[in-house]
């Protein structure tokens, strides 16, 4: 099956700055990326309908039969059953929200040009799907998605044994350890939700873990780390200090003391020692966050909301972020005092002011960071960063 994940322009803008560098379906929520969740249910090649400047890295291929899926929709058994029983040239909506369609080549091209011909049969879905709409939905729905992904991943697999010197509390079925995980003396409590420990991960001495938790491939929990669920540590990240209900997409470091709560951190970020994020206002009011589509702050409806940080952003030691802060791509932040609640991409500076981070210097720093993990910055990535530099909303 040819799977095409569809980003509407409105939805893509709602997930900026995280979607500056990826389609929506490449976001991680729970243990897996959205597209990976669907791939557990549906066998096929994965393609993307997203912003044109992203398509070299995330291509679009249209074939004779295509399953087009709203990138913001999270899969469940009800939707999979509908998809498997649907016919070619049918399109499914929940109220006015597009969910999925099976279309031939010509009708796929029509749909991507905002045309639904008379040859396509419209159908209504009775059961409301789980749909992410805003940045904060990533941490808000993370507990439910860790539980769903946990069941998908461990199916027909056997966990590695937990070392006898680890203090563990919870049902044995609530812990799954992949091969190559190095677990030192620590405390693991799975009573509040399942804990997934990925391949080649490391949990150092004295770490305190309360589920639900996803520790993805190659990631490290440093000595004395304090992790409250529901939290996801994406692949090849180094984590220390205190974290609560947050998602780190991958390849990022928060290796030292400091608090991070109700937050989403992009890839290739580095958070300096003793950096703290406020996730609750002193007035206990609901938190507002910057929305790129509205070009202003909108109410999240949440009492707890911390930091959203775009890819390749770094902050120095003792940095302070206020409640509901949104930081763009490729920022370099430092200094005393709280940073502004919205900092555009390629900003360099402190709470007293920011200047434009030169693109050549930013790319040079990125290459150095990635080389430390035996990765390199592709030409496609360079072109994406240049587009962001010129077009940041």
SSE topology:
Blueprint: E1 2-6, H1 9-14, H2 34-41, E2 45-49, E3 65-70, E4 73-74, H3 77-85, E5 90-94, E6 97-104, H4 105-112, E7 121-124, E8 130-131, H5 137-140, H6 142-154, E9 167-169, E10 175-177, E11 182-183, E12 187-189, E13 195-197, E14 202-203, E15 208-210, E16 213-215, E17 220-221, E18 226-228, E19 231-233, E20 238-239, E21 242-244, E22 247-250, E23 253-254, E24 259-261, E25 264-267, E26 270-271, E27 276-277, E28 288-291, E29 296-299, E30 307-309, E31 314-315, E32 320-321, E33 325-327, E34 332-333, E35 342-343, E36 347-350, E37 353-356, H7 359-371, H8 379-391
Parallel strand pairs: 1-2, 1-3, 5-7, 9-12, 10-13, 11-14, 12-15, 13-16, 14-17, 15-18, 16-19, 17-20, 18-21, 19-22, 20-23, 21-24, 22-25, 25-30, 26-31, 27-32, 30-33, 31-34, 33-35, 34-36
Antiparallel strand pairs: 3-6, 4-8, 5-6, 28-29, 36-37
């Amino acid at each position: 099956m040819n799977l095409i994940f569809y980003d509407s322009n409105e939805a893509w803008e709602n997930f900026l700055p995280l979607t500056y560098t990826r389609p929506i379906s490449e976001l991680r929520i729970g243990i897996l990326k959205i597209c990976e969740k669907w791939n557990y249910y549906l066998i096929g090649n994965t393609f993307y309908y997203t912003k044109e400047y992203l398509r070299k890295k995330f291509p679009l291929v249209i074939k004779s039969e295509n399953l087009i899926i709203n990138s913001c929709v999270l899969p469940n058994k009800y939707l999979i059953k509908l998809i498997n029983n649907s016919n070619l040239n049918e399109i499914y909506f929940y109220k006015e929200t597009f969910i999925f369609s099976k279309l031939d080549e010509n009708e796929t091209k029509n749909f991507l040009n905002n045309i639904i011909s008379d040859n396509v049969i419209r159908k209504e879905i009775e059961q409301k799907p789980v749909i992410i709409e805003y940045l904060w939905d990533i941490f808000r729905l993370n507990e439910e998605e860790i539980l769903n992904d946990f069941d998908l991943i461990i199916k027909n697999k056997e966990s590695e044994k937990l070392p006898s010197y680890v203090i563990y509390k919870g049902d044995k079925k609530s812990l799954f350890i992949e091969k190559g995980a190095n677990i030192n003396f620590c405390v693991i409590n799975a009573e509040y939700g399942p804990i997934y420990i990925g391949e080649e991960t490391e949990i150092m001495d004295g770490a305190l873990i309360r589920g639900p938790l996803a520790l993805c491939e190659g990631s490290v929990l440093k000595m004395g780390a304090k992790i409250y669920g529901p939290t996801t540590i994406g692949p090849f990240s180094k984590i220390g200090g205190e974290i609560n209900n947050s998602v780190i997409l991958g390849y990022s470091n928060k290796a030292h003391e400091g608090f991070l709560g109700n937050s989403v951190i992009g890839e290739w970020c580095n958070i300096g020692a003793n950096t703290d994020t406020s996730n609750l206002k002193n007035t206990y009011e609901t938190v507002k966050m910057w929305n790129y589509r509205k070009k202003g702050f909108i109410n999240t409806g949440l009492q707890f909301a911390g930091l959203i940080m775009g890819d390749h952003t770094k902050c120095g030691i003792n940095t302070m972020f206020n409640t509901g802060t949104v930081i763009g791509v490729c920022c370099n932040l430092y200094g005393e005092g709280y940073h502004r609640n919205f900092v555009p991409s390629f900003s360099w500076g402190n709470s007293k002011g920011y200047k434009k981070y030169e693109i050549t210097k930013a790319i040079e720093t990125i290459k150095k960071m990635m080389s430390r993990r035996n990765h390199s910055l592709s030409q496609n990535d360079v072109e994406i960063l240049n587009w962001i530099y010129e077009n940041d909303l």
